[in-house]
User: Fold these one by one.
Assistant:
Number 1:
Amino acid sequence: MESEQLYHRGYCRNSYNSIASASSDEELLDGAGVIMDFHTTEDDNLLDGDAASPGSNYAMSNGGGAPSSSTHLLDFLEEPIPGVGTYDDFHTIDWVREKCKDRERHRKINSKKKESAWEFTKSLYDAWSGWLVVTLTGLASGALAGLIDIAADWMNDLKEGVCLSALWFNHEQCCWTSNETTFAERDKCPQWKSWAELILGQAEGPGSYIMNYFMYIYWALSFAFLAVCLVKVFAPYACGSGIPEIKTILSGFIIRGYLGKWTLMIKTITLVLAVASGLSLGKEGPLVHVACCCGNIFSYLFPKYSKNEAKKREVLSAASAAGVSVAFGAPIGGVLFSLEEVSYYFPLKTLWRSFFAALVAAFVLRSINPFGNSRLVLFYVEYHTPWYLFELIPFILLGVFGGLWGAFFIKANIAWCRRRKSTRFGRYPVLEVILVAAITAVVAFPNPYTRKNTSELIKELFTDCGPLESSQLCEYRSQMNGSKAFTDNPNRPAGPGVYSAMWQLCLALIFKIIMTIFTFGLKVPSGLFIPSMAIGAIAGRIVGIAMEQLAYYHHDWFLFKEWCEVGADCITPGLYAMVGAAACLGGVTRMTVSLVIIVFELTGGLEYIVPLMAAVMTSKWVGDAFGREGIYEAHIRLNGYPFLDSKEEFTHTTLAREVMRPRRNDPPLAVLTQDDLTVEELQGIINETSYNGFPVIVSKESQRLVGFALRRDITIAIENARRKQEGIMLNSRVYFTQHAPTLPADSPRPLKLRSILDMSPFTVTDHTPMEIVVDIFRKLGLRQCLVTHNGRLLGIITKKDILRHMAQMANQDPESIMFN
């Protein structure tokens, strides 16, 4: 109850002073850091016809001429009002109120901690609760990630066979203890039986191939069907990657149930099934969603976070860092990912806690050791040669390919998802998943590079050829006898195996490109990191082998003659695969710094940061030439989430008066006069309109602005005044001034509502450029601002008006971008 006392404070009128007095760790709003989002029925309720919600928020003030913070919001109330401080689904939080409430709670704890040992213990618990919640989040994220990795590997191998000696072993684990494996066929052992061997009793021949083919398709369809049914029945929010919605939630939007326990449980189970089904998707993006679910659930154990939505978002920022940490084994990359890609309010304190959460999650994952290689990283590589300056040319070309692929994928995937939303096909998500899974399984099985798990494919493409590698990509001809040989010098003429692998990789590249477009957005958990990296790794390996053969056959060319000695090892095809993977992922997501850190943590290739940086930056430039939106921003816009992207520039020359409402032919702006209304008239305005707030003016003739009052505050004030004050009647005069107006002696008792009035609403003049208005909304997280001319009220601009205007300027349907 104590934490809710602030609701009765007039913080709207002293918000600026509160901000100025905040400590560095408790800064209220970081200028460009907070974006506040509004649902259709909330932000447009200020002007147009949706029902007012009980979750309406207080207006933000610019704090001019503020009275002291002791002014009570409802000065006649003595106890908190039930329901105040909670938010409806698809509404935004009020950052100002939440941060003020947290500071008030903090002051009360500090003032009481010297009273007794118990109060001092409570203050210590409160101070350490932030570290406790991120520790629990990191522990749960690491444990769930390890469980998902182990289960996905086992179920993926289940499509090909089973281990008779221990059913819970996957293919690799089954053959670890076998003494009958050979170097050339290290993946074959008596303990592992394919389905053809179990059912038909034969391992070779057309019959066994057809049986294995059939069982592969059967298991793929079974896993996909089970995944989509669980999502549809138990947790519809468990589909997709979750990152677009998490970005929106972290910007202040409320989506009830998206981070709940049912979503966590179903997402964990169906993620394993979806990955094992062989669909062109990854588990890395959904792991961020899983970690954020853990953070949200654990935050309810601590009142400091459960009762404060703004503080809860600090935990979610740390949880997203832990998610990337366990997804890639990249704790530093996870922190930078949270900072660069998903968070909008990221104070220094959150940076430290994100770092700690990522550390704990990575430690737990390393303890579980799901990859069986005693390493945290997913694709550990060791290259024996440095990169040379002339190789920047193919690295930059790979960056160009990544940018082109990213731009093409975003446009194609968004077009398909929009078609899915607008046609009858979208009504049958189960059928769509089954159809895509069937096509994927039928086409993938004949090609060994598409049949295997995508993570294993990327690992093989990253790996350098050496004497211990038995991959077809390493079948070079020996110069001595022309047969297959493995020596320490890979710069040899490619053998038939390499050329065969090149053709298979080209087919795999086309297959992955097509299927990823149709897979991302299905009603199953689907990440985009691994498929994008696989496409880039395939393209990079092809380019790397081509460069290697050029260096061998044309070592006297100027480029190679300068850097490559005859017979020297100077081209590493695996490095090209790594650079291509980073370029394609950068082209799709438009990440830069965090992506480079993730990739070098993922592979351990610290020496190759410069090629990675060159490729990632090139892919971003090329992708931005076709559109500045990454895939996550594009899906946010497709779903119509009210989200002002801070990365998007507004370059149009419109003015505030062209965007404000009311416009021509619109009904006049609904306003309240400061001392002319009765309770009955005020209730009539509230009942006849659905606006979420009303400007208060001196009189209809002057139109001089006094302040701004929210509908919810007015309703609460009237209801509580009737209960607690005698003499309040329908014909009682309502006034927002300091002193009551002169009334006849027989008039009923007037109702003073000045305490709920925001005396300093944010205003702009009608000649203010919209470029400045948009910047103000982004950096201050405004809900609305009023438009004046020479002090007279003209209209109002809401966040929804800005989103509509930006869509109109981009030649889009203004109504199509709003939330549905």
Note: Residues 1-84, 480-490 have pLDDT under 50 and may be disordered.
Number 2:
Amino acid sequence: MSSSGSLNPESDSFEGRPVFYIGQHDSTRTEALVDDQYTQVLNSGFRFVTAPITNQHFFNRVVDLHRAYLKEREQWTEQRGLTAAQPPNASLPGPVVPTLTDKDTELYPSNYIGSLAVYFSPWIDLCSSDPLISSISRQVLNLEAAYANFCGARTIVVPGPRNDDSSRGIAQYARAIREAMHVANRANIIIHMPMYREPGLDEKAETLSSIFNPGNGLKAKEKEIDLFSAWDSWNTIRSVCSYSMRLFVALRVPRRVPEKTLQERWFAEPLHYLTIGQDIFELNRAGHPSLSRNHQDLINRYMRLRSIPWLILCDVGPRPEELATRPDEMAAEFPSLAEASQALRESRRPHMPAMNAHVGYMRYLERQQPPFSAMETPALTSFQDWLQPPLQPLADNLESATYEVFEGDPVKYDRYETAITEAMVEWKELKKPTSTATPENPSNPELVVTVAGAGRGPLVTRALRAAESTGTPIQIWALEKNQDAYVYLLRKNKVEWGNKVTLVKTDMRGWEGPRLKGREDVIGKVDILVTELLGSFGDNELSPECLDGIQNHLARPHGMSIPHSYTAHLSPIATPRLFADISSRVVGDPNAFETPWVVRLFAIDYVAQKVPDHPRFQQAWEFAHPVEVARADDFAAEHGKAAKHVTGGVGSMAGASGTNEHNARHCHLTFVCPTRGVIHGLSGFFESVLYASQTGAGKEPVEISILPDQIDRKSKDMVSWFPIFFPLKKPLYFPQDTELEVSMWRQTDDTRVWYEWLVEVYAWVGPDTRIKVGTSDLHSSRKVACLM
């Protein structure tokens, strides 16, 4: 029977939610499942299972090999009369693990090998301080990696380090993983890590170290849990592996969910699996497994990633003894009435096992997730962490499809229309003169409105609508340099605007000004100038330079620009995915790490915390329009417009005239980081005041913002702009209680504009003393600068 409402895909009110892909892992399993057992697990509700690469026979063979070697070395020492204080010959050959045989594994190439998550032997110890054990472990790792790769496995899970105390051990482990990635060159390697070192969360299988060096396994003195030590180990591993796109993490969910800071740190990492053990579940009043609200919130948060992590339930059944019992085929074909009735109540066929209780609960949790919001449509989700080079609308003519994407955001144009409406209303209230006024008709109410950079005309439509709603007569001009978009505007003027708009094909900086109706011999002024030249960083698409070239047509002092002002903002972030992506592009694009990328940031961690005087998002600089003093106009008056690039002797860069120096900017910002971590670049945002009330009545300004902590208040659900990302060539690690000093410059040589950025790390070593512990290169986007 089909359901109704928001959970029924056939219903008009259906609300989409992330899909759970649930697998099963048995930590006691020593052999891969046979076909019948695999079918039983799938029939109990799981979608995939883990499979050990080798079996108990191989484990016993490796243990016997090492034991025989130790005995041989002891005999060798006795034969030469060496005392315990005399070390054996360092060149004595160590044990070599022979190749696998058919007795060592139950895993073979099959038609479902791709749906298995094969699991390395948990008894190896790559971190061991015993060089023999670490060598044997590395050999086993490579043997299993090679065989799994041969079988066609595409997902190989490696048990992570069991502690983080030994930097030597972690380095050994990381180096071994890098080697295994070369061996299994077609498979993804997933490191199974705990979210933090919660007692009892690690692998429980014995290791070679616990067998041969049990004294080393004595419990150390209990100490406070370091929440970030497991992440530190993971950071070392992936750094040694050069942020490989084939390296992922499987995250063990702890019984006690940690603070949000650590959750967000792991959220930014390349998650492949979330693993949930049986002891994480609690029994509800009805005796069924359930998860705490904190666990539910964590899962719901991680399920919002574009690459949704799969879920692995550990040790929740079916039990090995259940799988060992082959179902009676006769009983399955001819069930009793009681068996058939029970199967009907459980919505299954009589011969199939019942739905696993833990899987059933996870399916319930899947249905209870918050539905996708307006910002989580498939189209927008596809843009998560997808790098796009910034547009250069001055240098390039945009395609119609690009304009169409911009026009699909009603929020932006609603805010623009509100700003234009308020400007027109207050113009009347303040009784401002209009640019159409003449000595014969000094009270002419017609406003002169110009939309510069009209594109396909959405702002023209909104300006006409605002004029109609406020009863304001206007003369409106639309300027567009793109000859193809100009053709579209001509048609739109006839079909939609009733030829009310005067269209001019020109770069706004070369426009002569409006020739007023009825007085075409007179070049007038503009009362309201409307533009949508803002970029993801506010000024990165050269809005200041464009408005400098047209602001001389604004009527002074009452003429106004919409937008009135805009500010750029920065925050340092950790984003391993983007760093790995950019690293893979360097071969084809040497400037990839010095390109400011437009990207919908999602799987990121804002490493800075909000503290007094140092917010998480800090303003870099501001532009306001119109500019009261225009250097370009002064220069043209002195040298003529044709002498734009004549050196004026003002000390500007590259021997330029300095006419754009007033649009150069510099900022130096300090961000506070209480916890240790790593940054991969700077995230950039902007805010803009489209119109600020001039009546002094205490009205809120009309604003738009893409700042994460302001967008919901100022322009909720606006999607026209994604943030900008300024990458670092090398990840920059910082210890806890540090300050990140960010320096950024907006540079110009009168022909182009580019950015330069630098990050420094300072640690406090005393109440009044800081030391520098790290610094990035000085990055410059000059080679990919925005052309004026």
Note: The CA atoms of residues 676 and 736 lie 4 Å apart.
